[in-house]
Amino acid sequence: MLAFYLLSLPLALAVVAVSAAAVATTKGCNRQCLTNMVDEILTSMVAHNPDILPLADLYKATENSHPAALTMMHSWRTIVSAGEPSLLAIDVNNGSAYFALDINEGDPYAPNILRGRIVVFNDTLTEIELFIHRSRGDHGFSFSPEQLANNSAVVMDVPSNATLPTREELMTISKGLFNGADYENNLTIADSCQFTEIGWLVPNDHGPYGNGTSYGPAGCEIGWTDGPFDTNARVGLVIDEQLGLVVQSGMIPGVVYAYRNLSAFIPDAFPGGQNQSVQWTKDYLGDYPLLYAFGSTGETMEVLQYYNGALQAIQINVFMNPPNATSAWLSM
Ligand SMILES: *[C@@H]1O[C@H](CO)[C@@H](O)[C@H](O)[C@H]1NC(C)=O
Ligand SMILES: *[C@@H]1O[C@H](CO)[C@@H](O)[C@H](O)[C@H]1NC(C)=O
Ligand SMILES: *[C@@H]1O[C@H](CO)[C@@H](O)[C@H](O)[C@H]1NC(C)=O
Ligand SMILES: *[C@@H]1O[C@H](CO)[C@@H](O)[C@H](O)[C@H]1NC(C)=O
Ligand SMILES: *[C@@H]1O[C@H](CO)[C@@H](O)[C@H](O)[C@H]1NC(C)=O
Ligand SMILES: *[C@@H]1O[C@H](CO)[C@@H](O)[C@H](O)[C@H]1NC(C)=O
Ligand SMILES: *[C@@H]1O[C@H](CO)[C@@H](O)[C@H](O)[C@H]1NC(C)=O
Ligand SMILES: *[C@@H]1O[C@H](CO)[C@@H](O)[C@H](O)[C@H]1NC(C)=O
Ligand SMILES: *[C@@H]1O[C@H](CO)[C@@H](O)[C@H](O)[C@H]1NC(C)=O
């Protein structure tokens, strides 16, 4: 982490010089231009100065689901180091990109995760949707800045002989995640499919009683089948045919329950799991302090990877919102 911290400044300065030239000479934003835009955003955060960005006259921006001018966001105030993205999906057709990486907000030994989506139109940034995760509670359970880089490297390393999907295939899969009827039962899942939640390879977990069926680390089935679904999901946000990646976002109603001395978000789509948590809380009440069960909405932004005719990775990224919440991005 310390090396990471020290390296980031010269790297960031080099990036600004390259990107200014790329943006000036490119009309549509190509792969390099979108890569540079992401780097420029990270550089401006570390410089605590959003004014150096090519923002559109009217731009859309949220951070952890809250709309705000960039100058008022945490990211431009607290981030003191950011390297290159660990995960980077680029959609030249839609002028969009998705990225995820570890950042530091002062304590080099406690990295946090920044992830987000941008849209570039006419050489300007029109949309910036950011999430900073600082703890497991932001997701309702899982989070690992320690594992993010390694697990992302696996996803970024697409074999050179891979059979890549078309945009249309990726779009169908994007819709299928939130609408089981379209794709639920006939999508092939690779044996090696990597299932992560905010950087974390979900480990074997046997439920609060410790006696349930285990799942993970290769548990893409649990991320793909049986919902939760969302008919208003934003699909095909970033479609990267070169890496077989597609990004989409849904709003998932559920409840945050006590889970031993932790807490866990369980979607309403899983009533069996919810019932078990209700019963478990009754059984253990009084043994040690337990979190009260709160209604909650998980705002997701999943990254799916598909090539060689099979699902290769599911990254379930969730940020906790109040109950019955919708997304600011659905309000326009
Ligand atoms: C693109 O930006 C230029 C200014 O840099 C402006 O003149 C032009 O109208 C913009 N085009 C669109 C389609 O917004
Ligand atoms: C990440 O990968 C590197 C190189 O393979 C390894 O040394 C390191 O222990 C890994 N870190 C984690 C957290 O898995
Ligand atoms: C790609 O190449 C590897 C060896 O590098 C081989 O094992 C694999 O079967 C090949 N895959 C396809 C889809 O051709
Ligand atoms: C199965 O997959 C194809 C795409 O390969 C899709 O068009 C179709 O709707 C899917 N669903 C079912 C139930 O066949
Ligand atoms: C796990 O234990 C709980 C409490 O004893 C019980 O209600 C539940 O049926 C058990 N589950 C399994 C899968 O054995
Ligand atoms: C991205 O491009 C696809 C066409 O491949 C289109 O259907 C989709 O609506 C676009 N997504 C956004 C968010 O513009
Ligand atoms: C939480 O419970 C685990 C065992 O399930 C234990 O190892 C850990 O120390 C506990 N943490 C606290 C803060 O009580
Ligand atoms: C969950 O509990 C409710 C009410 O107690 C019950 O109606 C429902 O059938 C249960 N669902 C499952 C899947 O256990
Ligand atoms: C959320 O909506 C449900 C109905 O769909 C309602 O019963 C519940 O009271 C609402 N919760 C809050 C906190 O508004």
Question: What's the layout of helices and strands?
Answer:
Blueprint: H1 2-25, H2 31-46, E1 55-63, E2 66-67, H3 75-78, E3 81-82, E4 87-91, E5 96-104, E6 112-121, E7 124-133, H4 145-156, H5 167-178, H6 180-183, E8 189-197, E9 200-201, H7 220-224, E10 234-240, E11 245-249, E12 251-259, E13 262-267, H8 271-284, E14 294-300, E15 302-307, E16 310-316, E17 318-321
Parallel strand pairs: 1-7, 8-16
Antiparallel strand pairs: 1-2, 3-5, 4-5, 5-6, 6-7, 8-9, 10-11, 11-15, 12-13, 12-14, 14-17, 15-16
Helix pairs in contact: 1-2
Bound molecules: 2-acetamido-2-deoxy-beta-D-glucopyranose (9 copies).
Residues 93-94, 167, 171, 236-237, 239 line the site of one 2-acetamido-2-deoxy-beta-D-glucopyranose.
Describe the structure.
The chain is an alpha+beta fold and 332 residues long. The chain folds into two domains: 23-134, Nuclear Transport Factor 2, Chain: A, CATH 3.10.450; 146-327, Nuclear Transport Factor 2, Chain: A (Roll), CATH 3.10.450. It has eight helices and 17 strands. A hairpin with a 4-residue loop joins strand 4 and strand 5 (96-104). The structure holds 2-acetamido-2-deoxy-beta-D-glucopyranose (NAG) (9 copies). One 2-acetamido-2-deoxy-beta-D-glucopyranose is lined by residues 209, 211-212. Residues 271-272, 275 line the site of one 2-acetamido-2-deoxy-beta-D-glucopyranose.
